[in-house]
Amino acid sequence: MADTGPGADERVAADLAAWGLGPTGGRAVVGDAATVAEAIARCAGLGATTVVLQPTAGTDAAAFVGWVGREVRPLLG
User: E strands, 1-77, where?
Assistant: First the structure.
């Protein structure tokens, strides 16, 4: 799960709680494009070949995917 912008911490916490999960423990990333890119790179460094970024509930999925493509992807090299 990933989110950005004002209220992102609260949205992620609410989604995790709705799923019966506690603090993220690496399950989610909150922050700007650089922070999200760093989390993806950490996963890749641990051997992940696929990383799924799920937007929080109520987030416009198309806008989220657009943001990832425009802002995050270029930071991944």
Answer: 2-3, 29-30
